[in-house]
Amino acid sequence: GGSVRQPASFCGVVGLKPGYGRVSRYGLVAFGSSLDQIGPITRDVRDAALLLGVIAGHDPCDSTCANEPVPDYLAALTRTAGFSPRGPSTTIEREGAAPLTGVRLGVSDEYFGEGCDPAVRDAVQNAIVLLEQNGATIETIDMPHMKVGIPCYYTIAMAEASSNLARFDGVRFGRRAERPSDIHDMYSRSRGEGFGPEVSRRIMLGTYALSSGYYDAYYLKALKVRNLIAQDFERAFERVDAIVSPVAPTTAFPIGEKSDNPLAMYLGDIYTIAANLAGHCALSIPCGFDANGLPIGMQLMAPPFGEAKLLSIAHKYQCLTSHHAAVPPIAAAARG
After folding, report:
1. Buried (b) or exposed (e) across 235-257, using 16+ Cβ within 10 A?
2. Contact call for residues 97 and 319 (beta carbons, < 8 A)
3. Where are the beta strands (DSSP E) in 124-251?
4. pTM over 0.85
5. How far apart are alpha carbons 330 and 289 in whole angstroms?
6. Most buried of 52, 85, 254, 329 (most Cβ within 10 A)?
7. Which neighbouring-strand residues pair with 278?
8. Which residue has the higher pLDDT, 250 or 172?
9. φ/ψ (deg, to 5) at 233
């Protein structure tokens, strides 16, 4: 739901979530099987393209991995912005970078409303202006169901987590409690000792949503909302090549600040979860800093298997800026 893009945004680096099925999930400890997707966190877009080219592709060990050809992502970058494949990943070539003429980018007011920090909003909107100045066409799109994405995502994710984590019972998977009195004691102690409070919370909520009498009211309804969110994306991508938004409503917060408020922590996913629900690819790229020197990330989203286009647009923006190569002011101050 944002486990690649949010830390990348908070740390001023690039985070890429490929579309569902682009990268094999074989070997991944499943959390939400219909949502999980492995992706790289890298210094810049070129490194993300290089790494995605290695990890993408069909895997017979994962039935959800699509049997689709893997494009040459690095070549897509060179065609777009004139990057030398042999050049260092931090090189910025402003001269000769092909303009974004013909690229249509969608912007939705739903991503810039209440709860979005002014510094984040300004940085992303300034990035949109820069993209437009370099040839991109900006179109206003409507994403009416984004506001219900949080409850939809967490209902589905927790339900799937409760099923996936049931295997960690102390018998087949996971740790086993020492010297249990009987099998029931082994089960309960193994899971109680092995799962932390947040994992336990998600298991209990997911089990509740799947229980008799509540399945239709919660899980089934969430699946219907998920379909509506996917339809919003389908309509948008009929008009635009990619959608631009913030990655998170705020910059990085102090460690432990939201530990006692899970809901506040969940709301941090508000801009990223829709791409997981719809199975689309999405990318976080640095676009500035707030007044405290903390990095701000811009999100780009594209249809499934649209990673090459996504990387091309991000790479062009990176050629016009130096946010990805800058040491965050807060880090520079700490060094001093």
Report:
1. ebbeebbbbbbbbbbbbbeeeee
2. yes
3. 137-140, 242-246
4. yes
5. 9
6. 52
7. none
8. 250
9. -65, -40
